[in-house]
Amino acid sequence: MDAKVLEKKLKEISESIENGKELIQEESILEFQASTKDILKKINKVLEEGRQLRLGIVGEVKAGKSSFLNAMLFEGKDILPKAPTPMTAALTRISYNETPKAKIVFYDFNDWNSICTMARKYNETLQKMYEEYQIKIEQEQQKKFSIENLKNIKNVRKQEDKMKTVNFIMSKKDFERENRENIPMEYRACKEVLDLADSNNINVEAFLGTEKIIQGSLEEEYGYLKQLNEYVGSEGKYTAIVKYTEIQLNHKMLEGIEVIDTPGLNDPILSRSRTTQKFLIECDAVFLLGYCGQFLGADDMEFMMSSLPNEGINKAVLIGSKMDSAILQYPSKNNPSFKVAYLGTKRNCERQAEENINECSITSSNEKLLSQIKASLPPKCISSLAYAASLQMKKGEPLGKYEANMVKNFCRRFPDFPNDADTWLGLSNIVEVKKEVFEETKQQKEKIITERMKHIVSSQIVKFLNLLENISIQAKSNQSDLKKYDCEQLEAKLENLKENLDSVRIVVKNLFEKSAIESQRIIEDMAVDIGLEMSNHLQFEVVTSTKTQHHSSTSGHLWWKTTNEWDEVIRTNTAQLSDIDENIRNYCFSCMKMINANFKNLLKIDSLQNNIKATVIGAFEQSDKEFDENKILIPLENALSRITLPSLEMNLETYENMLDEKLGGIVLNGTVKNEKIPLLKRTQDKILAIMSQDIIKKIKEQGIMIDKNLQTQAALFIDNIVNQLAENQKKLEFMIQDKQASLKKLEEFIDKISQAKQILLELEA
After folding, report:
1. Predicted confidence (pLDDT) per residue in 86-119, tens digit
2. CB 108 within 8 A of CB 209
3. What is residue 559's predicted lDDT score, i.e. its pLDDT?
4. DSSP β-bridge partners for residue 551
5. I need a labelling partner for 494 at 20 to 30 A (CA). Which of 50, 461, 469, 528 fits?
6. Which H or E element spans position 673?
7. Residue 349, Cα to own-chain centre: how many angstroms?
């Protein structure tokens, strides 16, 4: 179904019935036109969402994400700036624009406070570790001195040894360099960020919570990319305080494509990790990159599965990167040929991927994503460097530094290697990956968009047909009245209708008021149910793992030396932040489903409408041959359509930000351990309680709106019907002045409605 054709046809129908406003009640035509605008808005939203193919790039640190992107999008050229370290890398959103432009989003005050807090914890942890190290060294020396005392060593010698002990202890700076990896990654990352900001003498507070727009030409001396490097480059002055960037480039390969380049799933900055997940949910396909030589170890795979969002991602593509490096590292025993090394490296990568994914499937609960990853097996082994070398050779350009080094190593290692552009292109495998992702995924997406549009139209066709039928009924009723009656007779019929409607005013008013009272009771019951529902979302899994650590201690000297050995069983309890996120989302969705999906039935709106309809129609003498039920039914339906219920929406971001703020410093790699788990539990329960109170407050506000709406309808419902009848009466009186011309217009209008219904049926087909 072509969207433009659909839009054109619906607009034609809407315009074709415009002149009917002078022939029948205007409200029916306005409702049809409003419905047309609504469906076109929904279709345009689908098209807007589907306008770009959104691709996410995630993977291990140093998996070659930037090189892969440069190969895929920019013909191997280093267009995208590289951050100084993975820990200070910013999330980047890349898309097309005729004029290069970038939006730089800086951390806000809460983000920076959290970073400063964790940087302080880095210093505190380092200080504690260093003090423990000093104590340990001193204790070891004291043991040594006590043994020497038994041998009556002179006090002078002891003093000399104490002086040596002081010299033996490492400086704090040397200790930090050797033991830095033992400090939690979040603390290390935030320390790096803070140090980088300090080294560049940034007035951080002046930037927090702000954005900056960069525009310019790629060719200018101080052009777009040079400006951009100041904020995301390896030597950028402001790189440390950037939360994420949205980069737009005038590059043909980016037309219709949007790329999310993540700093890594193990992003140490919690708020930035949250932003990464939100962006990834919007992606149509996600590339999972791992080094071919050791493809996504079990720990990496498990962490990736727990970090990626559970919803939104429609396709996963496994990429084994740096194939050139992996081939060169293939065991050199028996001097394998290039072909043997290539096939062996490829098999090893595929075997590792399958084993690690199968192992991960035993424990992972992210079944949808896991099935997509399994469907992507085996991984596609690529070499971005080989691709760049191939293009340079084809263009007759000198090889770059890294490309030249790769070619030299291959030719030295594999005498049988055919060193030509086509061989390097084949080894890179970039062309094949481009074809699968950019063509097949795009085709899949277009199919999905078409199906979604069909569903939207199909679900509304019956509604449109009914609206058109109501319009046709009114036109035919007016046509009949115009043929049979004069102005005086029409006036008498209207007065009779008014009298009958007046006779049921009090009954209709009572029905509305009774429904208003019932609605308030149900609102109170729903508030209780929402509070109770929270108990279904409080639990999260705490996993206990054990490992045995072997210890040994040697004391004494020479023949008095003794060694003691023992095993220590270390138990570690862990909980995942993703489980807390899921609890918050699920509680919100459960409440929304409870309220929005069941509101209408709970408040018995259908029953109210049926009772009112029966009461109003019952006021007329059905045996009266002159009574035309449609005269009342259509304005009645129009009046009943005004009885609506407000919908409820909640902004989850408010509660996610609250969670990030409370948990800054206790979440390491998305995991909370041991004594910090109770704090995680208290934080979750508190946020869910706040959410519960907010939802209850909102539905009580809705209750007030519902009550007001019902009370208003109680007072005005019959008047609305009477006003519609009076409006139609005026149109009939005007048409009687030129009866023949008016009858012709009505006939033509009825034909238009019939043709419009046929067009709708063809659209559905």
Report:
1. 444 667 888 888 888 889 999 888 788 888 888 8
2. yes
3. 54
4. 566
5. 469
6. strand 671-673
7. 30
Burial 315-325 (b: 16+ CB within 10 A, else e): bbbbbbbbbbb
**Distance (Å, rounded) from C-alpha 279 to C-alpha 57?**
11
- What is the β-pairing status of strands 543-555 and 562-576? antiparallel
| Helices 270-281/652-663 angle, 10° precision | 150
Q: Are strands 53-59 and 285-291 parallel, antiparallel or unpaired?
A: parallel
Give the C-alpha separation, 174 to 170, whole Å: 6
Q: How far is Cα 640 from Cα 31, in angstroms, rounded to an integer?
A: 13
Between CA 629 and CA 622 the distance in angstroms is 8
Are the C-beta atoms of 576 and 670 separated by less than 8 Å?
A: yes
What is the rounded average pLDDT of the residues 300-304? 62
What's the CA gap between 688 and 692, in Å, rounded?
A: 6
What is the pLDDT, as a whole number, of residue 709?
A: 81
Q: Is the pLDDT of residue 157 over 80?
A: no
Q: What is the pLDDT of residues 217-226, one digit of tens each?
A: 655 545 677 7
SS3 of residue 327 by DSSP: helix
Query: Rounded CA gap, 256 and 99, in Å?
Result: 15
Task: State both tokens at 72.
Answer: 């895929």
C-alpha–C-alpha distance, residues 97 and 252, integer Å: 10
CA–CA gap between residue 607 and residue 614 (Å, rounded): 11
Q: How confident is the model at residue 405 (pLDDT cuts 50, 70, 90)?
A: very high
Band (pLDDT 50/70/90 cuts) for residue 591 is confident
Residues 22-70: tens digit of each pLDDT: 888 888 888 888 888 888 887 777 677 666 777 888 876 667 777 888 8
The percent of residues above 90 in pLDDT, for the chain, comes to 15
Where residue 765 falls among pLDDT bands split at 50, 70, 90?
low
The per-residue DSSP string of 245-306 comes to EEEEE--GGGTTEEEEE-S-TT-S-HHHHHHHHHHHHT-SEEEEEEEGGG-S-HHHHHHHHH
Average pLDDT score, the chain:
80
Q: Where are the alpha helices (DSSP H) in 395-504?
A: 401-413, 421-428, 430-434, 442-484, 487-502
Q: Per the structure block, which two tokens stand in for 30? A: 């306005």
The separation between the first and the last C-alpha atoms of the chain, rounded to the nearest angstrom, is: 9
Sheet holding 242-249, edge to edge: 211-215, 101-106, 242-249, 91-96, 257-261, 53-59, 285-291, 316-321, 380-381
Place of tokens 């993975």: 86
Residue 138, token pair as written in the block: 């001193």
Residue pair 344/336 in contact (Cβ under 8 Å)? The answer is: yes
For residue range 534-549, what is the model confidence (pLDDT) as tens digits?
999 999 888 887 777 7
Any bridge partners for residue 102, and if so which? 214, 247
| Cβ contact 433:380 at 8 Å | yes
Residue 88 pLDDT: 46
β strands within 91-159, DSSP E:
91-96, 101-106
